[in-house]
Amino acid sequence: MTGRVTIAFTGGGTAGHVIPAIPVISSILDLQHTVVFIGSNNGLEEKLLADLQLRYYGITTGKLRRYFSLKNLVDSFLIPIGVLQALLILLRMKPKALFSKGGYVAFPVVVAAWLLRIPVVAHESDLSPGLATRLCTPFIKTQCVTFEQTKTEARKVVVSGTPIREFLNRGDPQCARDWLNVTDQRPVIVVVGGSLGAQSINDIVRHCIVSLSERFTVIHVCGKGNLEASLQATEGYFQFEFIDQEWGNVLALADFVVSRAGANALFELLYLQKPNLLIPLPLSVSRGDQIENAEYAEVRGWSLVLPEERLTKETFMNSIDQLVTNQTRYKSNLTAFSVPDAVEVIVGEIDAVIRA
Question: What is the pLDDT of residues 241-273, one digit of tens each?
Fold first, then answer.
């Protein structure tokens, strides 16, 4: 990109539709370009982007649902309002391109960009595209995907991987030991259930905490409001609602990770080559994307998978035993995981659509 230009970004609904955009935004800002982010009015995206030097605009958004709900009728009127609001913002800011990270927040912005002939580059983290991504497909120039097996009808598809937050590359296990005041050399298990935590995972870890803490140092990220006061003094067990600045160091310290199977979290574990146990969200509360992500990783020998429907104290501890016993094999398989420089690829595609 020659000369200083304005690049618009959009995405939201969940943190997973914003966080991977942050390294791309940082790269664009480092190149001295202006960044505009169009998100929702609920504050989630703006809060996640608070540390970046960009202009944030909130619009009205209607959630895109795959199931019948009377709320779909209301939201069908909100989406055109969002398109109109996005049109006015884009007309005022005159960006040369739009990068969409997906989620229902992105759809009206992508449509508005298409109406104004602003080229759109989009990114899909999951193995199978979500509803918002599929609806946006006719309006985009380039679809970047994390996994080469992702199927999409986009005109141009580029395998980019997922942008990795820079602090993960700087993780220092000794800094994590100092922060936690951990002095013993037992293996470290990090358990995380996503940004909001996962009750089923929290419960099983606490049911097994006596057995776990005898063998491991356990770092448990349980989500807001989910701390268990009765376990606060348990030796070898550290629980947090959320870990921010120290997260890269904590992951660097981890010998094993227990996690949901969201695409962004999974990609980070593969990138960091951490032997992992995945407990994907079940179909009863999801579209099955985490199940697909987990199966994809399991088939390639990168992850061990325990379906939530089979999650008991016994199956959980057996899975931990399997992970430990076979850690050499998992580490060997993970070293073969090919990781492109996603930020460089995506910034290159943004540059390409501007020059086209």
Answer: 999 889 999 999 999 999 999 999 999 999 999
Task: With H, G, I as helix, E, B as strand and everything else as coil, classify residue 44.
Answer: helix
What is the DSSP track for 317-350? HHHHHHHHHTHHHHHHHHHT-----HHHHHHHHH
Backbone φ, ψ for residue 151 (5° rounding):
-100, 130
Beta strands 142-145 and 6-10: pairing type? unpaired
**Cα–Cα distance between 343 and 292 in angstroms, integer?**
24
Cα 211 to Cα 206, 230, 317, distances in angstroms = 10, 17, 9
Beta strands in the chain (DSSP E): 6-10, 34-40, 55-59, 97-100, 120-124, 142-145, 157-159, 188-192, 217-221, 237-240, 256-259, 276-278, 303-305
- β-strand pairing of 276-278 with 256-259: parallel
Residue 128: CB atoms within 10 A of its CB come to 19
Strands 120-124 and 142-145: parallel
User: Under 8 Å CB-to-CB from 154, ≥6 apart: which residues?
Assistant: 122, 137, 140, 142, 143
Query: Residues, the chain, total?
Result: 356
Q: What is the pTM of this model?
A: 0.89
Residue-wise pLDDT for 14-51, tens only, equals 888 899 999 999 999 999 999 999 999 987 899 999 99
The C-alpha atoms of residue 57 and residue 212 are separated, in whole angstroms, by 46
